[in-house]
Design brief:
By secondary structure, the protein is α+β, with helices and mostly antiparallel strands. The chain is built from five helices and 17 strands.
Amino acid sequence: MGLHKEIWLNSVVGNLFPDNSFAIRSANHSAFVTNKTVHVPNAGAKPGVTKNRDSFPATVQTRSDNELTYDIAEFTTDPFRVPNAESVELSYDKRESIISASRSALVEAVHNAIIRAWVPSGYTVVKTTGESTTAHIGTGNRKLVTIADILAVKKEFDKNDVPATGRCFLLDAEMYDQLLGALTTHQADAFLATADAKKGTVGTLYGFDFYMRSSVLRTVAAGTSLAAEGSTTVTDSAAGIAWQADCVARAQGESELFEQANDPTYYADVFSMLVRAGGSYCRYDKKGVVILAQDTPA
Protein backbone atom coordinates (compact mmCIF):
# COMPACT_ATOMS: atom_id res chain seq x y z
CA MET A 1 0.00 0.00 0.00
CA GLY A 2 1.41 3.36 -0.99
CA LEU A 3 2.05 6.24 1.38
CA HIS A 4 -0.49 9.07 1.26
CA LYS A 5 0.83 12.59 1.05
CA GLU A 6 -0.53 14.89 3.74
CA ILE A 7 -0.69 18.68 3.96
CA TRP A 8 -1.87 21.15 6.60
CA LEU A 9 -3.40 24.35 5.28
CA ASN A 10 -1.81 27.52 6.60
CA SER A 11 -5.07 28.78 8.10
CA VAL A 12 -7.49 27.31 10.62
CA VAL A 13 -11.29 27.46 10.51
CA GLY A 14 -12.28 29.57 13.52
CA ASN A 15 -15.13 29.31 15.99
CA LEU A 16 -18.39 31.18 15.50
CA PHE A 17 -19.61 33.83 17.95
CA PRO A 18 -22.83 35.89 18.23
CA ASP A 19 -23.24 39.43 16.98
CA ASN A 20 -22.89 42.04 19.75
CA SER A 21 -23.40 45.25 17.76
CA PHE A 22 -26.52 46.04 19.81
CA ALA A 23 -24.43 47.07 22.84
CA ILE A 24 -23.24 50.30 21.24
CA ARG A 25 -26.80 51.61 21.70
CA SER A 26 -26.34 52.35 25.40
CA ALA A 27 -24.70 54.90 27.67
CA ASN A 28 -20.95 54.28 27.67
CA HIS A 29 -19.49 54.05 31.18
CA SER A 30 -16.25 52.44 30.04
CA ALA A 31 -14.23 55.34 31.46
CA PHE A 32 -15.08 54.00 34.91
CA VAL A 33 -14.23 50.34 34.26
CA THR A 34 -11.17 50.48 36.52
CA ASN A 35 -13.40 51.17 39.53
CA LYS A 36 -15.11 48.53 41.65
CA THR A 37 -18.56 50.15 41.69
CA VAL A 38 -20.25 52.61 39.35
CA HIS A 39 -22.81 55.02 40.84
CA VAL A 40 -25.59 56.35 38.58
CA PRO A 41 -27.38 59.37 40.15
CA ASN A 42 -31.11 59.73 39.41
CA ALA A 43 -33.07 62.94 39.86
CA GLY A 44 -35.88 62.88 42.43
CA ALA A 45 -39.47 64.10 42.01
CA LYS A 46 -40.28 66.65 39.31
CA PRO A 47 -41.02 70.24 40.43
CA GLY A 48 -44.67 71.08 40.91
CA VAL A 49 -46.28 73.69 38.66
CA THR A 50 -49.06 76.07 39.71
CA LYS A 51 -51.15 78.05 37.27
CA ASN A 52 -51.82 81.71 38.21
CA ARG A 53 -50.16 81.41 41.61
CA ASP A 54 -51.81 83.79 44.11
CA SER A 55 -50.37 82.62 47.39
CA PHE A 56 -46.97 83.90 48.47
CA PRO A 57 -44.42 83.01 49.55
CA ALA A 58 -44.58 79.75 47.67
CA THR A 59 -43.71 76.63 49.62
CA VAL A 60 -40.05 75.75 49.17
CA GLN A 61 -39.42 72.12 48.31
CA THR A 62 -36.36 69.93 48.81
CA ARG A 63 -35.61 67.29 46.22
CA SER A 64 -34.39 63.89 47.37
CA ASP A 65 -32.33 62.24 44.65
CA ASN A 66 -31.67 58.54 44.21
CA GLU A 67 -28.83 56.47 42.86
CA LEU A 68 -28.28 53.14 41.20
CA THR A 69 -25.04 51.24 41.58
CA TYR A 70 -23.51 48.32 39.76
CA ASP A 71 -20.24 46.48 40.17
CA ILE A 72 -17.56 45.87 37.58
CA ALA A 73 -16.75 42.17 37.18
CA GLU A 74 -13.64 40.39 35.94
CA PHE A 75 -14.05 37.89 33.12
CA THR A 76 -11.16 35.48 32.55
CA THR A 77 -10.54 32.69 30.07
CA ASP A 78 -9.21 29.26 30.95
CA PRO A 79 -5.44 29.10 30.32
CA PHE A 80 -4.25 27.36 27.17
CA ARG A 81 -0.90 25.79 26.43
CA VAL A 82 0.75 25.50 23.05
CA PRO A 83 3.39 22.75 23.20
CA ASN A 84 6.72 23.44 21.60
CA ALA A 85 6.10 20.79 18.96
CA GLU A 86 2.92 22.52 17.80
CA SER A 87 4.78 25.82 17.56
CA VAL A 88 7.31 24.43 15.12
CA GLU A 89 5.48 21.60 13.32
CA LEU A 90 2.10 23.12 12.43
CA SER A 91 1.73 25.16 9.28
CA TYR A 92 -0.87 27.46 10.85
CA ASP A 93 -0.39 29.77 13.84
CA LYS A 94 -2.21 27.97 16.64
CA ARG A 95 -1.15 30.55 19.21
CA GLU A 96 -2.78 33.42 17.35
CA SER A 97 -5.85 31.30 16.67
CA ILE A 98 -6.30 30.56 20.38
CA ILE A 99 -5.75 34.19 21.38
CA SER A 100 -8.31 35.35 18.82
CA ALA A 101 -10.84 32.77 20.02
CA SER A 102 -10.18 33.70 23.66
CA ARG A 103 -10.80 37.37 22.90
CA SER A 104 -14.06 36.54 21.12
CA ALA A 105 -15.15 34.23 23.95
CA LEU A 106 -14.59 37.04 26.44
CA VAL A 107 -16.66 39.43 24.33
CA GLU A 108 -19.47 36.87 24.12
CA ALA A 109 -19.49 36.25 27.89
CA VAL A 110 -19.39 39.97 28.65
CA HIS A 111 -22.33 40.76 26.39
CA ASN A 112 -24.35 37.83 27.73
CA ALA A 113 -23.86 39.36 31.17
CA ILE A 114 -24.63 42.91 30.00
CA ILE A 115 -27.97 41.86 28.51
CA ARG A 116 -29.00 40.32 31.84
CA ALA A 117 -27.72 43.36 33.75
CA TRP A 118 -29.94 45.67 31.69
CA VAL A 119 -33.05 43.92 33.01
CA PRO A 120 -34.36 45.46 36.25
CA SER A 121 -36.00 43.34 38.91
CA GLY A 122 -39.78 43.58 38.64
CA TYR A 123 -39.42 44.54 34.99
CA THR A 124 -42.33 45.32 32.66
CA VAL A 125 -43.19 42.27 30.55
CA VAL A 126 -45.24 41.97 27.38
CA LYS A 127 -46.17 38.42 26.38
CA THR A 128 -46.46 37.16 22.84
CA THR A 129 -49.99 36.61 21.50
CA GLY A 130 -49.58 34.68 18.25
CA GLU A 131 -50.51 31.16 17.24
CA SER A 132 -49.03 28.17 19.03
CA THR A 133 -45.69 26.84 17.80
CA THR A 134 -43.06 24.39 19.03
CA ALA A 135 -40.83 26.01 21.64
CA HIS A 136 -37.20 26.62 20.72
CA ILE A 137 -36.36 27.18 24.39
CA GLY A 138 -37.84 24.73 26.86
CA THR A 139 -40.30 22.11 25.72
CA GLY A 140 -43.91 22.10 24.58
CA ASN A 141 -45.45 25.03 22.71
CA ARG A 142 -45.15 28.80 22.89
CA LYS A 143 -47.01 31.67 21.22
CA LEU A 144 -45.48 33.27 18.13
CA VAL A 145 -44.28 36.87 18.02
CA THR A 146 -46.76 39.20 16.26
CA ILE A 147 -46.73 42.80 15.06
CA ALA A 148 -49.28 43.57 17.77
CA ASP A 149 -46.73 42.47 20.39
CA ILE A 150 -44.20 45.01 19.12
CA LEU A 151 -46.92 47.68 19.17
CA ALA A 152 -47.74 46.73 22.78
CA VAL A 153 -44.10 47.32 23.76
CA LYS A 154 -44.20 50.69 21.97
CA LYS A 155 -47.29 51.64 23.96
CA GLU A 156 -45.47 50.84 27.21
CA PHE A 157 -42.69 53.21 26.20
CA ASP A 158 -45.13 55.90 25.07
CA LYS A 159 -47.15 55.94 28.27
CA ASN A 160 -43.96 56.33 30.31
CA ASP A 161 -42.71 59.28 28.20
CA VAL A 162 -39.67 57.31 27.08
CA PRO A 163 -37.92 59.34 24.31
CA ALA A 164 -38.97 58.29 20.82
CA THR A 165 -35.37 58.39 19.62
CA GLY A 166 -32.86 55.69 20.49
CA ARG A 167 -35.41 52.89 20.90
CA CYS A 168 -33.93 49.45 20.24
CA PHE A 169 -35.14 45.86 20.21
CA LEU A 170 -33.03 42.69 20.46
CA LEU A 171 -34.54 39.33 19.50
CA ASP A 172 -33.01 35.90 19.19
CA ALA A 173 -32.86 34.40 15.70
CA GLU A 174 -36.00 32.32 16.15
CA MET A 175 -38.14 35.16 17.52
CA TYR A 176 -36.85 37.45 14.78
CA ASP A 177 -37.90 34.94 12.12
CA GLN A 178 -41.32 34.69 13.76
CA LEU A 179 -41.68 38.47 13.50
CA LEU A 180 -40.69 38.39 9.83
CA GLY A 181 -43.28 35.68 9.25
CA ALA A 182 -45.96 37.89 10.83
CA LEU A 183 -45.32 40.74 8.37
CA THR A 184 -47.11 41.09 5.06
CA THR A 185 -44.94 41.13 1.94
CA HIS A 186 -45.18 44.93 1.79
CA GLN A 187 -44.38 45.29 5.49
CA ALA A 188 -41.45 42.89 5.23
CA ASP A 189 -40.01 44.79 2.26
CA ALA A 190 -40.25 48.08 4.16
CA PHE A 191 -38.81 46.52 7.32
CA LEU A 192 -35.82 44.92 5.61
CA ALA A 193 -35.15 48.04 3.53
CA THR A 194 -34.25 49.87 6.75
CA ALA A 195 -31.57 47.35 7.73
CA ASP A 196 -28.11 48.88 8.15
CA ALA A 197 -25.20 46.42 8.03
CA LYS A 198 -22.73 49.04 9.32
CA LYS A 199 -24.81 49.62 12.45
CA GLY A 200 -25.79 45.98 12.79
CA THR A 201 -29.52 46.68 12.60
CA VAL A 202 -31.79 44.20 10.82
CA GLY A 203 -34.84 46.42 10.37
CA THR A 204 -36.96 49.20 11.88
CA LEU A 205 -40.55 48.87 13.06
CA TYR A 206 -42.72 51.21 15.17
CA GLY A 207 -39.67 53.36 15.88
CA PHE A 208 -37.51 50.48 17.16
CA ASP A 209 -34.18 49.63 15.54
CA PHE A 210 -34.05 45.84 15.59
CA TYR A 211 -30.99 43.73 16.33
CA MET A 212 -30.68 39.96 16.13
CA ARG A 213 -28.51 37.59 18.13
CA SER A 214 -28.35 33.80 18.31
CA SER A 215 -29.51 33.94 21.95
CA VAL A 216 -30.84 36.74 24.15
CA LEU A 217 -32.77 35.92 27.34
CA ARG A 218 -34.93 33.24 28.87
CA THR A 219 -37.61 33.76 31.51
CA VAL A 220 -39.38 31.46 33.94
CA ALA A 221 -42.74 30.11 32.79
CA ALA A 222 -44.69 33.10 34.11
CA GLY A 223 -42.43 35.50 32.24
CA THR A 224 -42.15 37.76 35.29
CA SER A 225 -38.50 37.03 36.11
CA LEU A 226 -35.41 35.86 34.31
CA ALA A 227 -34.47 32.21 34.49
CA ALA A 228 -31.33 31.46 36.46
CA GLU A 229 -28.12 31.88 34.50
CA GLY A 230 -27.42 28.67 32.61
CA SER A 231 -30.95 27.35 33.27
CA THR A 232 -32.22 24.47 31.16
CA THR A 233 -35.61 24.17 32.85
CA VAL A 234 -38.14 22.81 30.36
CA THR A 235 -40.76 25.42 31.29
CA ASP A 236 -38.46 28.35 30.49
CA SER A 237 -39.42 30.64 27.61
CA ALA A 238 -37.42 32.69 25.12
CA ALA A 239 -37.47 36.45 25.58
CA GLY A 240 -36.28 39.56 23.78
CA ILE A 241 -35.49 42.95 25.24
CA ALA A 242 -36.50 46.46 24.19
CA TRP A 243 -34.69 49.49 25.56
CA GLN A 244 -34.02 53.17 25.04
CA ALA A 245 -30.35 53.97 24.58
CA ASP A 246 -30.11 56.40 27.51
CA CYS A 247 -31.86 54.01 29.90
CA VAL A 248 -29.15 51.32 29.96
CA ALA A 249 -25.36 51.43 30.27
CA ARG A 250 -22.29 49.37 29.54
CA ALA A 251 -18.71 49.50 30.78
CA GLN A 252 -15.97 47.45 29.16
CA GLY A 253 -12.20 47.61 29.38
CA GLU A 254 -9.50 46.33 27.07
CA SER A 255 -8.68 42.64 26.95
CA GLU A 256 -5.42 41.83 28.75
CA LEU A 257 -3.19 38.96 27.71
CA PHE A 258 -1.27 36.99 30.34
CA GLU A 259 1.57 34.94 28.90
CA GLN A 260 4.29 32.66 30.17
CA ALA A 261 6.62 31.77 27.30
CA ASN A 262 8.66 28.58 27.42
CA ASP A 263 7.16 27.45 30.72
CA PRO A 264 9.58 24.81 32.10
CA THR A 265 6.84 22.82 33.85
CA TYR A 266 4.46 22.61 30.87
CA TYR A 267 7.15 22.55 28.13
CA ALA A 268 4.98 25.03 26.29
CA ASP A 269 3.79 28.59 26.02
CA VAL A 270 0.86 29.21 28.42
CA PHE A 271 -1.48 32.14 28.18
CA SER A 272 -4.91 33.41 29.22
CA MET A 273 -6.94 36.61 28.94
CA LEU A 274 -8.91 38.95 31.22
CA VAL A 275 -11.34 41.81 30.75
CA ARG A 276 -13.20 44.02 33.22
CA ALA A 277 -16.79 44.83 32.34
CA GLY A 278 -20.27 45.51 33.68
CA GLY A 279 -23.60 47.07 32.85
CA SER A 280 -26.94 48.12 34.27
CA TYR A 281 -30.26 49.76 33.61
CA CYS A 282 -29.93 53.46 34.44
CA ARG A 283 -33.29 54.63 35.74
CA TYR A 284 -34.32 54.24 39.37
CA ASP A 285 -37.97 54.03 38.23
CA LYS A 286 -37.01 51.17 35.84
CA LYS A 287 -38.59 52.87 32.82
CA GLY A 288 -37.15 52.45 29.35
CA VAL A 289 -36.71 48.67 29.46
CA VAL A 290 -39.39 46.12 28.49
CA ILE A 291 -39.12 42.35 28.09
CA LEU A 292 -41.02 40.51 25.34
CA ALA A 293 -41.50 36.96 26.62
CA GLN A 294 -43.01 34.05 24.71
CA ASP A 295 -46.26 33.02 26.38
CA THR A 296 -47.37 29.44 26.88
CA PRO A 297 -50.71 28.50 25.25
CA ALA A 298 -53.48 27.62 27.70
